Amino acid sequence: MDGGGDNGRSLLTMLGLGVLACNSAAAVYRSWGDVASVLFVVAANAALLLLLHFLCKFDRARPGDDDRGKAKAAVWALTTLLTVMFASRVAPLMPPIVGVAVWVVALATAGGGFWALFIGP
């Protein structure tokens, strides 16, 4: 399934991005009157595309290379951003104690990701 001659893009990746684009267009269409929701969809998609870009850079860089460290930091920052974005949308819809649990899990995920990428073995 890997399209090695196509800049490393596989058919499955392109299909996934196409489904994401269609789903995002439908979400924007459904929430057209709500500026905050449209901005959320656009920002989430931009963050996802940047995340894919930096994941590819991380994959291609050699261990110990400066670009690899920068890509790793960008990957962590973008995943943390997406986690916080989605927690901020989900937590208010839940009962208060569950909303707190959503934030605790989001923060634990961000902290665990930081530990796994920068501190741990």
From TrEMBL:
Ribonucleoprotein among keywords: no
Keywords tagged on the record: Membrane, Transmembrane, Transmembrane helix
InterPro entries, alphabetized: DUF6490
Transmembrane spans: 12-29, 35-52, 73-91, 97-119
Domain of life (superkingdom): Eukaryota
This protein's name: Uncharacterized protein
Natural source organism: Miscanthus lutarioriparius
